[in-house]
Amino acid sequence: MKILVTGGAGFIGSHVVRRMVNTYPDYTIHNLDKLTYAGNLENLVDVESKMNYTFIKGDIVDQGFITNLFEKEKYDAVIHLAAESHVDRSITNPLEFVRTNVIGTLNLLEGYRHHGNKDRGHFYHISTDEVYGELGETGKFLETTSYDPNSPYSASKASSDHFVRAYGATYKMPYKISNCSNNYGSHQFPEKLIPLFINNIKNNLPLPVYGKGENVRDWLWVNDHASAIDTIFHNGAIGETYNIGGNNEWKNIDLIKHLCKLMDVKLGREKGDSAKLITYVTDRAGHDFRYAIDSSKLMNELGWEPSVNFEQGLEKTVTWYLQNEKWLNNVTSGAYKEYYTKQYAER
């Protein structure tokens, strides 16, 4: 089977690519990535020499490029992970999110519709729980929950979800969709909360917390997400949607304080030293209060379940970042520093 994975040099994508390349040596895996700030070929050094792996540098927004690629390769399946994913960036530049997340997805759908081997595979679209909007103190998102996006990012992902389903209904294109909760783990670009705060604590920099830090998120270890994607790709039903969550709800401020305690131990600091770095900043626009995802469909129908709880996964994550300072230093330079200053220092 020949599979195109988009966004495979990014955080989640690199974990999926490594899993597919190593677990299924008879598959041909093509990794298509634009290599923006969040895409890093260092994430894939352990598979770059594998015979069943090929990297392709390209932009899913480039319709001509995508058309030619599908005409040439005749992919059996697509695992679509390429996306602009940071909510703050979407508030600053929403059009970029429309171009990548909506137009880019449409280009891939068209390429697969006209040139993919749809009798052998399907189009698997990876999305987010943010398309559902926000929750109050109780309840969880189900696959049947109505869409109610509140940020340009979530609106762009909701639109792409709808287009995938529309292609299924209109063109009888085989597809699957999954919506996941917040991911964390190794190789995540440090604009996201956990690697950002690990890096800041290590360097004694402020920890910028939005509002009072009371927003609630469900956290999913990226290796468990890659396992779920593998399970859905091979065993999920065509035309179905599956929610993927870690069953780990945490208030942001509680997570941050737990991380501070863990970092104090790992760095040999006095108890409470890292927590002194916490700095409250103006809340971001349209900040959803709570996300919580119900994964019972995936667990009951396909037998998947998370392999670690949050405390276990967080310790693995912290250990990886502290042992891979070179990787972290390589991605926290140049354009990222300019973005970080604009995003937080001026609030």
Describe the protein.
- The structure is a single chain.
- With 347 residues, the protein is α/β, with parallel strands linked by helices.
- It has a domain at 2-184 and 220-244: NAD(P)-binding Rossmann-like Domain (Rossmann fold), CATH 3.40.50.720.
- 44% of the residues lie in helices and 16% in strands.
- β1 (2-6), α1 and β2 form a beta-alpha-beta unit.
- The relative contact order is 0.13.
Strand content: 15-25%
The top-level CATH class of the domain at 2-184 and 220-244 is Alpha Beta
Helix content range: 40-55%
Question: What is the count of DSSP helices, taking H or I runs of 4+ residues?
Answer: 12
Summarize the model shown.
With 347 residues, this protein is α/β, with parallel strands linked by helices.
List the helices and strands and how they pair.
Layout: E1 2-6, H1 11-23, E2 28-33, E3 53-57, H2 63-73, E4 77-80, H3 87-92, H4 94-115, E5 123-128, H5 152-171, E6 175-180, E7 182-184, H6 193-202, E8 207-210, E9 216-221, H7 222-235, E10 241-244, E11 249-251, H8 252-267, E12 278-281, H9 296-302, H10 310-323, H11 325-331, H12 335-345
Parallel strand pairs: 1-2, 1-4, 2-3, 4-5, 5-6, 6-10, 7-9, 8-12
Antiparallel strand pairs: 9-11
Helix pairs in contact: 1-7, 2-4, 4-5, 6-8, 8-10
